[in-house]
Amino acid sequence: MNEASHELYVSQPALSSSVKELENELGIEIFTRSSQGIALTVDGAEFLTYARQVLDQASLLEERYKNAKPRKQLCSVSTQHYMFAVEAFVEMINSIKSDEYEFTIRETRTKDIINQVANMLSEIGIIYLSDFNKDVIGKMLREKHLEFHPLFRAPLHVFISRNNPLAGKKKVTMDDLKPFPFIQYEQGEEGSFFFAEEAVWPEYSPKQINVTDRATILNFIIGLNGYTVCTGIDNGDLNNEKIVTVPLDTDETMLVGWITNERAKLSKAAENYLEKLKSVVADHGYNLID
């Protein structure tokens, strides 16, 4: 007790009193006391194990946040399956000046994007609104204290194989596409049309394929001569020698934007990502929404 009081810069009676108060508060006896000194009880030994864990965690906190070295940059984004979102993520990473970072991008289902931003697993979520889904999605965002920030409005296009007989047309209709497999992103057991990534879909499609990732959908467009509905923004990942985008003859549009948690402040990396996102969209010829 003498050595402990010296280490803590307190008097021995004050330390003994503090230990006694702790024992009373926890309802256990940590030390046995005798004329020969003190010793740990069984409860005291167990308590000491937990106490050491707390001290170890406190040391980790100090090492993490009091270290003079610049902290590791962190950023997480959840998005529907948009190539421009990934393109902007690459540009963001290439632009940072940091020896350490940990970034996460998740291409996932619409409902998962909303939940991940609501639970602060992601700082930013990228989704679209349409006349069909805006009421349902908007209500869900309000209930989860999320804000939707419009980025750009996109006329609808389809991705089809360059070998598709429709590839040379200036516009295609849903009737034109009936003979071909309709490929859409699967939204899970709780999915509904309101969460669909495709802003329009055929009233009836005898050939329909549900997929979960972008690479698969592109392979099916080429290998099965299928199609999917999209914004029309492409990049090098699209493989322009095999896949083309063709405008869809419809008045429907997609209002693409990002969602954030109104109770969270964006990191510098997340703000950087948004700037790159705007730049990528503008470079593809779309007008940004202020």
Give a written overview of the molecule.
- With 290 residues, the chain is an alpha/beta fold.
- It has three domains: 2-65, Arc Repressor Mutant, subunit A (Orthogonal Bundle); 73-152 and 256-283, D-Maltodextrin-Binding Protein, domain 2 (3-Layer(aba) Sandwich), CATH 3.40.190; 154-253, Periplasmic binding protein-like II (D-Maltodextrin-Binding Protein, domain 2), CATH 3.40.190.
- The protein contains eight helices and twelve strands.
- It has helices at 2-8, 12-26, 42-65, 83-95, 110-118, 134-143, 214-224, 268-283; strands spanning 31-34, 37-40, 73-79, 101-107, 124-129, 146-155, 157-161, 182-185, 208-211, 228-230, 243-247, 253-261.
- The strands form four sheets. Strands 4-3-5-12-6 form a five-stranded mixed sheet, with helices on both faces.
- β3, α4 (83-95) and β4 (101-107) form a beta-alpha-beta unit.
- α4 packs across α8 (268-283).
- The termini are far apart.
Layout of strands and helices, then pairs:
Layout: H1 2-8, H2 12-26, E1 31-34, E2 37-40, H3 42-65, E3 73-79, H4 83-95, E4 101-107, H5 110-118, E5 124-129, H6 134-143, E6 146-155, E7 157-161, E8 182-185, E9 208-211, H7 214-224, E10 228-230, E11 243-247, E12 253-261, H8 268-283
Parallel strand pairs: 3-4, 3-5, 8-9
Antiparallel strand pairs: 1-2, 5-12, 6-12, 7-10, 7-11
Helix pairs in contact: 4-8
Number of self-contained structural domains: 3
> What's the helix-strand series?
HHEEHEHEHEHEEEEHEEEH
CATH-wise, what's the superfamily of the largest domain?
Answer: Periplasmic binding protein-like II
- Per DSSP, the total helix count is 8
The CATH C-level name of the largest domain is: Alpha Beta
How would you state the average pLDDT, rounded? 88
Low-confidence stretches: none
Distance between the termini: 66 Å
What Rg, in angstroms, do the CA atoms define?
A: 29 Å
Q: Helix amount, in percent? A: 25-40%
CATH architecture of the largest domain: 3-Layer(aba) Sandwich
Our estimate of the beta-strand percent is 15-25%
The best one-word shape is elongated
